[in-house]
C-alpha cells in the first residue's frame, strides 16, 4: 500500500514537472495575448485518467500553483488590478483554471471515448474560467484581428480566450489520441492500480 502511494506521488510529480516544462514551449503567441503551448495540459489529464480524479486534482492544483507563480514572474502584480480584481484574477485565471484539469479522469472507466470526453470537459472548463475572467475582471473591448473590433466584452472574451484555448484543445486531443493508440500507453492507463 505504501509503495503504491509512493508510486502515485512520483508519477504525479513527474507529470506536473513535464507539464511545467511543456508550458514554457510556446508553439505560437497571439498578438493580443494568450499563447498555445506544446501539449502542456496533456500530462496532467493523462495522469488523472490513469489515477482517478482525486490524484488528478492533487496534481492539477500543484500545476495551478506553479502557473500562478509563473504569472507572478510575468508581472501579474503590476497589471494595475484592485485587490478584489487581483484575487478574482488569481482564482479564475490561475488556481481554478488549471485545477479543473484534474476532472479529465471523470470518465476514465469508459475507455477511449470516455478519455476524450474527460479531456474535452477539462479543457472546456478551463476555457470557461478564462472567459468568466474576461467578463468579470477585464471587460476588454476593441480590436482582435486587423479591422475586426467589438464593443461587446462577452464577444471579446469569447474570441480572445477561444483563439488560444481551441487550438490547445485540438492539439491536446490529437496528442492524447496519438499516445492512446499506442498499445503500451493504453495498457498503462488500463491498469487497475488507480484509486
Description:
By secondary structure, this protein is mainly α. Helices cover 68% and strands 7% of the residues. It contains seven helices and four strands, in the order H-E-E-H-H-H-H-E-E-H-H. Strands 1-2 form a two-stranded antiparallel ribbon. Strand 1 (26-29) and strand 2 (35-37) form a beta hairpin. The longest helix is centred in the middle third of the chain and has 28 residues, at 111-138. The radius of gyration is 17 Å and the shape is globular.
Concise structural overview:
The chain has 195 residues and is mostly helical.
Instruction: Kindly report the average pLDDT value.
Output: 91
Radius of gyration from the CA trace?
Answer: 17 Å
Output the number of helix runs.
7
Largest sheet entry: 2 strands, antiparallel
Order of strands in the sheet with the most strands? 1-2
Low-confidence parts lasting 5 or more residues at pLDDT below 50?
none
Q: Which structural class fits the helix and strand makeup? A: mainly alpha
Spell out the helices and strands N to C.
HEEHHHHEEHH
Binned strand content: 5-15%
Note the overall shape: globular
Distance between the termini: 11 Å
Percent in helix? 55-70%
Strand segment count:
4
List keywords for this structure.
mainly alpha, two-stranded antiparallel ribbon, two-stranded antiparallel sheet, 7 helices, 195 residues
Secondary structure blueprint with pairings:
Elements: H1 2-23, E1 26-29, E2 35-37, H2 42-51, H3 53-73, H4 83-99, H5 111-138, E3 142-145, E4 148-150, H6 153-180, H7 183-189
Antiparallel strand pairs: 1-2, 3-4
Amino acid at each position: 500500500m505504501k509503495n503504491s502511494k509512493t508510486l502515485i506521488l512520483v508519477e504525479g510529480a513527474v507529470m506536473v514537472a513535464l507539464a511545467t516544462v511543456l508550458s514554457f514551449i510556446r508553439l505560437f503567441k497571439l498578438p493580443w495575448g494568450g499563447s498555445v503551448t506544446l501539449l502542456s495540459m496533456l500530462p496532467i489529464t493523462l495522469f488523472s485518467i490513469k489515477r482517478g480524479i482525486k490524484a488528478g486534482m492533487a496534481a492539477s492544483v500543484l500545476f495551478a500553483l506553479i502557473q500562478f507563480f509563473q504569472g507572478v514572474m510575468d508581472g501579474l502584480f503590476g497589471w494595475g488590478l484592485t485587490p478584489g480584481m487581483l484575487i478574482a484574477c488569481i482564482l479564475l485565471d490561475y488556481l481554478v483554471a488549471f485545477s479543473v484539469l484534474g476532472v479529465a479522469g471523470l470518465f476514465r472507466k469508459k475507455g477511449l471515448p470516455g478519455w476524450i470526453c474527460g479531456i474535452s470537459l477539462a479543457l472546456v472548463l478551463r476555457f470557461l474560467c478564462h472567459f468568466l475572467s474576461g467578463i468579470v475582471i477585464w471587460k476588454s473591448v476593441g480590436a482582435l484581428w486587423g479591422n475586426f473590433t467589438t464593443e461587446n466584452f462577452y464577444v471579446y472574451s469569447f474570441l480572445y480566450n477561444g483563439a488560444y484555448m481551441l487550438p490547445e484543445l485540438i492539439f491536446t486531443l490529437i496528442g492524447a489520441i496519438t499516445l492512446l493508440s499506442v498499445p503500451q500507453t493504453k495498457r498503462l492507463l488500463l491498469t487497475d492500480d488507480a484509486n
